């Protein structure tokens, strides 16, 4: 309509002496709509050849000449329509190349379709119309193939989105499982630390008792040495008394009174010596019994200390193994939490998938001019998608190791419990 009004205004300005424009408006509108916008002007009907199409075009041109319409403006109109059609086709072709679509070049010799014996202006107008027909046909083919490719790519994107959501749910389940395992390991670690503290306290107490028993043993050994010295002194005094007794016996033999006194003295001394010997024997027996008891206690304490040391070494080794395992689980949990926090706070999104995906999305070429279509690669690999613009990276790794770590941790926790 805009082109039609523009043409009418040009015609009225250049031909003010002609008739009222209301007389020519229906004819001009019918001619333009027939030649520029009608489907039959671009594609001939069944049973109508290109000679009939040229005949209709000649008929329209003759009607315009009869209505005193200048062919230059009609040619400008057709040239502008041809440029618009070519611009539309080039724009469609550019977008199709950007998204990696397929197109087939289509050429047609339009010079053979132009009838002979026409003026050069009429031939140019017919040439414009035939070029617009060919360009419209190619544009239609491009649009149909492009929408078909877009539907396929949208289905592909929808499938990948479903797979990504499923993998996201699985990752969340794994993260919850790891968190529960970490909580269990923290409780186990606290209980082990408490048991270790109690064992160390018991070890310190037993060490203190052993030291006190050793001090008592040393004191008893010193007392035993003193008793031995006293016993030797008593034996020495006994021998001295025996010698005196012998000398007294010799003197008694010489006089009976002295003998009676010496007998009394000797019996008294013998009784005193026997009593002293019995006392000393009792003291020695009690000291020996105490020494044996202390030795038994010391040997028992040493055995208990060795058992405690062995048990303490076992508990220490077990605690070190648990610490190493817990550190590994904490590092893995920290990494998962860091990925979760970075995925929820940072503008980039990171996901780990082990699936068989295609690694190109040509439809994304409509959003960015930097996107380049590459040949499709279908491999079973892990894809780490880092969306910081529209660039996707591929990093090969294995998720089976993560599953193995998960089941290994579960078996370890069950055995420990």
TrEMBL record:
Residues 72-147 form the POF1B helix-loop-helix domain. InterPro entries: POF1B, POF1B_HlH. GO terms for molecular function: actin filament binding. Keywords: Coiled coil. Residues 175-290 form a coiled coil. GO terms for biological process: actin filament organization; bicellular tight junction assembly; epithelial cell morphogenesis. One of its GO terms (cellular component) is adherens junction. PANTHER family: PREMATURE OVARIAN FAILURE, 1B (PTHR22546), PROTEIN POF1B (PTHR22546:SF0). This is POF1B actin binding protein. It comes from Phasianus colchicus (Common pheasant). The lineage of its organism: Eukaryota, Metazoa, Chordata, Craniata, Vertebrata.
């Amino acid at each position: 309509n805009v082109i039609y009004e523009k043409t009418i205004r040009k015609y009225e300005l250049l031909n003010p002496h002609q008739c009222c424009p209301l007389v020519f408006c229906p004819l001009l509108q019918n001619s333009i709509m027939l030649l520029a916008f009608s489907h039959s002007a671009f594609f001939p009907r069944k049973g109508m050849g290109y000679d009939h199409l040229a005949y209709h075009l000649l008929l329209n041109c003759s009607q315009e000449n009869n209505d005193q319409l200048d062919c230059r403006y009609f040619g400008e109109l057709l040239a502008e329509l041809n440029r618009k059609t070519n611009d539309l086709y080039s724009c469609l072709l550019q977008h199709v190349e950007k998204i990696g679509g397929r197109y087939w070049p289509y050429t047609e010799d339009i010079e053979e379709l132009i009838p002979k014996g026409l003026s050069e202006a009429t031939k140019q107008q017919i040439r414009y119309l035939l070029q617009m027909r060919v360009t419209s046909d190619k544009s239609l083919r491009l649009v149909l193939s492009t929408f078909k490719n877009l539907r396929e790519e949208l289905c592909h994107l929808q499938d990948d989105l479903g797979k990504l959501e499923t993998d996201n749910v699985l990752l969340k389940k794994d993260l919850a499982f790891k968190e529960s395992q970490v909580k269990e390991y923290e409780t186990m670690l606290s209980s082990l630390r408490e048991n270790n503290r109690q064992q160390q306290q018991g070890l310190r107490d037993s060490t203190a008792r052993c030291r006190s028993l050793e001090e008592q043993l040393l004191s008893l050994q010193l007392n035993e040495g003193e008793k031995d010295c006293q016993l030797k002194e008593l034996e020495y005094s006994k021998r001295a008394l025996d010698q005196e007794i012998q000398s007294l016996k010799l003197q008694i033999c010489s006089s009976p009174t002295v003998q009676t006194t010496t007998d009394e003295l000797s019996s008294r001394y013998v009784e005193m010596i026997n009593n002293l010997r019995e006392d000393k024997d009792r003291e020695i027996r009690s000291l020996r019994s105490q020494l044996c008891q202390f030795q038994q206690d010391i040997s028992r304490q040493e055995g208990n200390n060795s058992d405690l040391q062995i048990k303490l070494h076992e508990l220490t080794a077990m605690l070190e193994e648990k610490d190493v395992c817990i550190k590994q689980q904490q590092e893995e949990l920290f990494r998962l939490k860091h990925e979760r926090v970075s995925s929820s706070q940072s503008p980039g999104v990171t996901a780990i998938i082990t699936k068989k995906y295609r690694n190109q999305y040509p439809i994304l070429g409509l959003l960015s001019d930097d996107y380049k279509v590459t040949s499709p690669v279908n491999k079973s690999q892990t894809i780490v998608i880092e969306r910081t613009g529209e660039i996707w990276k591929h990093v090969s790794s294995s998720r089976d190791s993560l599953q193995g770590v998960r089941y290994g941790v579960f078996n370890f926790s069950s055995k420990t419990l």
